[in-house]
Amino acid sequence: MIPTIRCLAVFATVAFAAPLAAPLAATLAAQDAPPTSGMDVIARMRSRHAGEWYKTLTFRQTTTIRRSDGRDTVQTWYETLRYTPERGTQLRIDVAPLVNGNASISTWDSTWVIRADTLAAVRASGNPFLALIEGAYMQPVGETVRQLAPLGFDLSKLRTAAWNGQAVWIVGSTDPADTTSAQFWVEDQHLMVVRIVLSGGAGRQPLDIHLGAIVPCGKGWLATKVEMLQSGQRRQLEEYHDWRCDVTVDPRVFDPHAGKR
Prior knowledge:
By secondary structure, this protein is mainly beta. The protein has helices at about 10, 25-30, 40-50, 130-140, 140-150, and strands at about 55-65, 70-85, 90-95, 105, 110-115, 120-125, 160-165, 165-170, 185, 195-200, 205-215, 220-230, 235-245.
C-alpha cells in the first residue's frame, strides 16, 4: 500500500493553514448543509462510519513498479493493517518471497525496515496515506488533522467537482485549474478518498494518486486499485486480492524486533 512514495512525504512542506481547535460539535452541525472546510469533510468521514469501520485488514497486493528505464517490475506484497487507540494506524508489508524475511512496518510518521527478519533501519517518515484510508474513520478529527499537517493540505480551501461520474469534495484547492497543490478528493456517496495529489517540492513533479474499484469490506469500504502517476506517467499500480476485514491479527506482526512471522 504505497510504500514506494514514503520518501515523497518529506518533500511535502507546503505551509499548513487549517485551524486545529474547531469544536467537533460545530463541525458536525447541520449535516445536510454543504461542508465549508476540509475539517468539515474529515468530520463527516468520521461521523458517517463511527463505530463501524473495520479495525483490521489483510490482503495480497500485486504491485507493478515502473523503473527509470521504462520497464515494469511486478512484485507480490502481503499487507496487514490495524488500528488501535494506543498505537493508531499501523501497516505491515511483507514482500514475496516471504522466506527472505523482507518487510516494513509503518505508522503515519515512522517506518521500520526489516531485512532477513532483522530490523535494519528506522526512518523518521511514515506512510502518508494511513490517516486518510483508516485513521480518519477511527480517531478524533483533531488527530487526523495533526497527522495530515506535514503533507501540506490547506484545509481552509474547499471546492466541489465531479470525478468518474460522482460528486466529490476537493480539500486543499479552490481553483479548477489547480492540479499541482496538495489536495485530496472525497466522494460523497461513501465518503471515501478517491484521489490524492502530493506536492513534490524541490523541483519534483506532484504525485497524483487515484483510488478506485471500491468494494464493501466489513461495515466499511475499501479501494482495491491504486494508481500513482507523475507527469502523466504511471509510476506504480497496486491491485488488491483476497481482502479480509476485521480479522484477528497477532500483535507481534507489528513488532519490528519479533523476527520471523
